[in-house]
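Is this the right way to post structure tokens for a design question? Let me know if I should format differently. Anyway, here goes:
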């Protein structure tokens, strides 16, 4: 499985050894606020989610990476590419421990995911979803060149639906400070 390195982070596939650290992050109600299930997660719930992330890797050959901050070697969240069968799309996603918000880590990891998705996996299009009130996530999507397409209902929740195509990525790489 692939490891990705950015200037400040190491992205490696999640593993069961990440359970306790991930559970610490998932316990924070502020971190979970904008997820599909917006309550803090128990250790057991986190374990089930982690198992589903690992199964996704097995099935698709890509998935969620552990986001490791190189300066302290800590797991600070996760990011990834996830196939969403209900939309027949591949989603770019990211989640960080609260103390790492507002420092550009989500943008940095999302750029690495776009690069991997378009250049390595050769996807033609990637999408991202965020609850419309999650302004920080919407800003990340816009910073990486994604464009708002529409609001959608999925799993009984309203989501802002952003997209970027491979040819837009190529163009945005040449004009942006990625």
């Amino acid at each position: 499985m692939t490891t990705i390195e950015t200037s400040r982070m190491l992205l490696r596939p999640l593993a069961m050894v990440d359970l306790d650290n991930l559970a610490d992050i998932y316990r924070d109600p502020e971190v979970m606020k904008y997820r599909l299930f917006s309550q803090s997660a128990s250790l057991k719930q986190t374990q089930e989610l982690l198992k589903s992330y690992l199964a996704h890797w097995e099935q698709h050959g890509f998935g969620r990476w552990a986001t490791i901050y190189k300066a302290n070697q800590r797991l600070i969240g996760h990011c990834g590419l996830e196939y969403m069968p209900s939309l027949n799309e591949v989603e770019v996603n990211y989640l960080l421990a609260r103390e790492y918000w507002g420092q550009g880590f989500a943008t940095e990891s999302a750029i690495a995911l776009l690069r991997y998705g378009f250049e390595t996996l050769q996807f033609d299009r990637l999408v991202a979803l965020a609850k419309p009130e999650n302004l920080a996530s919407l800003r990340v999507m816009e910073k990486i060149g994604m464009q708002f397409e529409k609001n959608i209902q999925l799993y009984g929740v309203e989501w802002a639906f952003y997209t970027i195509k491979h040819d837009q990525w190529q163009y945005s790489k040449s004009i942006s400070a990625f």
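Format looks fine. Someone answered above. Worth noting: Helices lie at 19-26, 29-32, 43-60, 105-120, 135-143, 166-175. The chain is about 35% helix and 30% strand.
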